Description:
The structure is a single chain. The chain is an alpha/beta fold. The chain contains eleven helices and nine strands. A six-stranded parallel sheet has the order 3-2-1-7-8-9, with helices on both faces. The chain has a three-stranded antiparallel sheet with strand order 5-4-6, with helices on one face. The protein is elongated, with a radius of gyration of 19 Å. The protein binds ligand BJW and zinc ion (ZN). The site of ligand BJW has 35 residues, from α2 and α11.
Amino acid sequence: xxxxxxxxxxxxxxxxxxxxxxxxxxxxxxxxxxxxxxxxxxxxxxxxxxxxxxxxxxxxxxxxxxxxxxxxxxxxxxxxxxxxxxxxxxxxxxxxxxxxxxxxxxxxxxxxxxxxxxxxxxxxxxxxxxxxxxxxxxxxxxxxxxxxxxxxxxxxxxxxxxxxxxxxxxxxxxxxxxxxxxxxxxxxxxxxxxxxxxxxxxxxxxxxxxxxxxxxxxxxxxxxxxxxxxxxxxxxxxxxxxxxxxxxxxxxx
Length: 253
Ligand code: BJW
Ligand code: ZN
């Protein structure tokens, strides 16, 4: 199934992987889009924007408390773990995630750029001061920043907000240098993240998509595999490892 792709991977020096909510779906974290997705039940602009937070911080915190609790109970799945192994199979390997659930770090991936923040971190709406605590925030009594008195919000990136320039700049630089770029479990609808695979491809990378369905990126991809990342990634990594050791020790062939 992966034979042709693996011939490309064997010669690739730098591999960049972009993940989205789909990679955590098999851990039990809901995705955003699609029938079962969060945006099927909730309106994004009423929860994931600064306007929504300023209008009703209580509702927004109730939603984030619910998601934090849910994410706090789940574990990395076979897809996350395969990416940890994949990191060892390339000279350079960068993982860029849109996810805020921290599951890549929990799995053991090392070089991770979290484009949309982390649900367990909090920050002040006014001075951006960071507050690290994982527990529930009382929605009726939202803590205030000790420096400026601003309300505390989750340190995630909402619609209309800039991504951390250092993080998104690093992600673009890595994508430009990628020999192979994987887009895994993302609908590729949210920018600037969705621009990364396009930039990689325009700079000569082999573009690979893994998703349970086709996306707007599929047409651009050099390879696309329809299936669950938790099924496909371990198989791909096992085959790549085998081909890598055969390349190192041809007498075993
Ligand atoms: C599986 C699977 C399995 C399931 N295995 N696969 C250019 C063009 C158009 C619009 C814009 C543009 N540039 C900027 C914009 C505006 C906006 C945007 O992109 N809008 C579009 C939606 C139209 N972008 C922004 O506002 C960004 N900021 C910005 O650009 O700042 C500059 C600026 C400022 C002011 C004005 C203009 C510009 C910020 C975006 C922040 C996104 N935030 C969220 C919430 C994060 C916090 C939280 O979690 O609470 O991030 S929204 C949500 O979408 C979340 C995700 O990270 C993000 C992407 O979703 P993802 O991961 O792709 O999930 P899904 O559900 O969409 O897809 C899951 C996929 O998995 C599906 O394809 C399934 O098939 C698949 N799947 N199971 C494999 N087992
Ligand atoms: Zn403050």
